[in-house]
């Protein structure tokens, strides 16, 4: 695949230059640049980079992952990769060859590249199917459960060469219920050794829950002794997370995570938080200075309110915001506990007597949250994420609610744009978990846009 993509970008670049000269410049190819000579020398520099950069971009988008990809997925990621490559080429041309590099070359390349890449991907797939059909393997599946049937279908549909399944062997961990056609069952697991001795078997797939892995290990060792590859289905009846095989400096580990986010995308999220946080501080600096003056001139006490909050994985940090209450607000909270309007382990009161008149105005337009941009820059918070709770509130969480701490807390989340205090605590928790389970950069962008409109309208505060 990497070789095919490198060839695709090489041929597409030449095709784009031919089309540019013939259709755009109405000149012979290769073009002759006055005072510089042939454009070939210029293009050779670019062609030395593109066959490396193009597969690298596709790799970062998951193009070469060993899993089945639909054509809409391939098309969408091809267009995304083409956009990234075009922006990269435009930036390099602007820096190094501003006067000589033809801008139309980038446009023609972006126009042709998705089609040529997908065409070569299709040709590559056809060649792979032809080659795989000539080297078709034979596999044996140990297990007769529903999971074994699903494993058989995946092996036949998604494995290179579409190997032939010789049949199934009944295992003691399967129980009495069989999901496999009786004609496909070759016998009990004890027949594994005779079958491997008298028949050609390339691989043996064990459909076994991890709880019963010790029962299957003797048969895995049997396959190893004979020289037949053994694959074990790494699923657990006790843990519903999708396992991932990790290599810790040579030590194999099996990792389970309820939700697995791409480290690369999380890195992009953190970089965006840093950039947007700095930009936000610069743009809102004059507004924050006005808030400082208003708070200081209307109420005694400090301008900033610092409070310990629970962040990522429960790490405590000092969250800062503009003070909107009287200096003794924390001491008076116990007296107002019976007037709490929120459900769950949180305290919310719409007409809180501790809030100053300027504090109500700051809260209405969410200006009291602006100092938290410094928490974002420090890495304690994110622009978008579940709101950081008080450590005392976390102690009263149900166990399933603690999972909202698995994401870095943020300035805004779905709860903010759904009505803030108008929703109950249970729904608030569900919205935060929905965000964690379905997180993406696109979702962050949509939440941020909705938050801006919510703040400007002053609704839900």
Could you walk me through the main structural features you see in this protein, from its secondary elements to its overall organization?
It is a single chain. By secondary structure, the chain is α/β, with parallel strands linked by helices. The chain folds into three domains: 2-134, no CATH class; 138-257, 3-Layer(aba) Sandwich (Rossmann fold); 263-457, no CATH class. The protein has 16 helices and 13 strands. The protein has helices spanning 2-24, 40-47, 50-60, 71-96, 103-134, 146-158, 192-198, 213-226, 263-298, 329-332, 357-364, 372-378, 391-395, 414-417, 425-437, 441-457; strands spanning 32-33, 37-38, 138-142, 164-170, 185-188, 203-206, 229-232, 242-248, 251-257, 304-310, 316-322, 382-384, 410-412. Strands 5-4-3-6-7 form a five-stranded parallel sheet, sandwiched between helices. It has a two-stranded antiparallel ribbon with strand order 1-2. A two-stranded antiparallel ribbon has the order 8-9. Strand 8 and strand 9 (251-257) form a beta hairpin. Helix 1 (2-24) packs across helix 3 (50-60), helix 3 crosses helix 4 (71-96) and helix 4 packs antiparallel against helix 5 (103-134). The longest helix is centred in the middle third of the chain and has 36 residues, at 263-298.
What's the layout of helices and strands?
Layout: H1 2-24, E1 32-33, E2 37-38, H2 40-47, H3 50-60, H4 71-96, H5 103-134, E3 138-142, H6 146-158, E4 164-170, E5 185-188, H7 192-198, E6 203-206, H8 213-226, E7 229-232, E8 242-248, E9 251-257, H9 263-298, E10 304-310, E11 316-322, H10 329-332, H11 357-364, H12 372-378, E12 382-384, H13 391-395, E13 410-412, H14 414-417, H15 425-437, H16 441-457
Parallel strand pairs: 3-4, 3-6, 4-5, 6-7, 12-13
Antiparallel strand pairs: 1-2, 8-9, 10-11
């Amino acid at each position: 695949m990497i070789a095919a993509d490198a060839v695709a970008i090489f041929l597409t670049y030449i095709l784009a230059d031919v089309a540019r000269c013939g259709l755009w410049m109405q000149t012979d190819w290769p073009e002759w640049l006055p005072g510089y000579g042939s454009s070939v020398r210029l293009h050779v520099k670019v062609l030395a980079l593109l066959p490396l950069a193009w597969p690298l971009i596709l790799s970062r988008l998951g193009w070469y992952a060993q899993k089945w990809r639909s054509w809409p997925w391939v098309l969408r990621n091809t267009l995304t990769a083409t956009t990234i490559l075009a922006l990269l080429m435009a930036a390099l041309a602007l820096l190094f060859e501003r006067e000589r590099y033809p801008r139309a070359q980038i446009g023609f390349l972006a126009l042709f590249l998705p089609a040529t890449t997908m065409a070569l991907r299709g040709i590559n797939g056809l060649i792979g199917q032809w080659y795989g059909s000539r080297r078709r393997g034979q596999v044996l599946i140990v297990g007769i459960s529903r999971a074994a049937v699903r494993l058989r279908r995946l092996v036949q549909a998604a494995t290179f060469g579409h190997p032939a399944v010789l049949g199934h062997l009944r295992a003691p961990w399967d129980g009495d219920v069989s999901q496999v056609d009786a004609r496909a069952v070759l016998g009990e697991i004890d027949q594994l050794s005779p079958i491997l001795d008298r028949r050609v078997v390339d691989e043996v797939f064990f459909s076994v829950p991890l709880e019963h892995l010790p029962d299957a290990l003797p048969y895995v060792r049997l396959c190893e002794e004979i020289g037949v590859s053994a694959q074990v289905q790494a699923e657990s009846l006790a843990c519903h997370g999708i396992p991932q095989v990790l290599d810790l400096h040579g030590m194999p580990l099996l990792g389970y995570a309820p939700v697995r986010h791409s480290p690369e995308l999380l890195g992009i999220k953190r970089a965006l938080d840093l950039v947007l946080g700095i930009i936000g501080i610069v743009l809102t600096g004059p507004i924050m200075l006005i808030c400082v003056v208003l708070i200081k001139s209307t109420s005694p006490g400090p301008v900033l309110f610092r409070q310990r909050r629970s962040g990522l994985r429960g790490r405590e940090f000092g969250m800062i915001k503009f003070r909107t209450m009287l200096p003794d607000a924390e001491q008076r909270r116990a007296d107002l506990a019976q007037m709490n309007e929120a459900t769950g382990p949180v305290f919310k009161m719409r007409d809180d007597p501790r809030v100053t008149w300027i504090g109500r105005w700051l809260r209405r337009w969410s200006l009291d949250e602006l100092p938290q941009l410094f928490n974002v820059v420090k890495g304690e918070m994110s622009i978008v994420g579940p709101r950081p709770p008080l450590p005392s509130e976390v102690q009263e969480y149900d166990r399933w609610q603690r999972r909202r701490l698995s994401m870095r807390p943020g300035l805004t989340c779905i709860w903010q744009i759904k009505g803030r205090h108008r929703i109950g605590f249970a729904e608030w928790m569900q919205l935060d978990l929905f965000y964690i389970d379905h997180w993406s950069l696109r979702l962050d962008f949509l939440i941020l846009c909705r938050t801006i409109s919510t703040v400007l309208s002053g609704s839900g505060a």
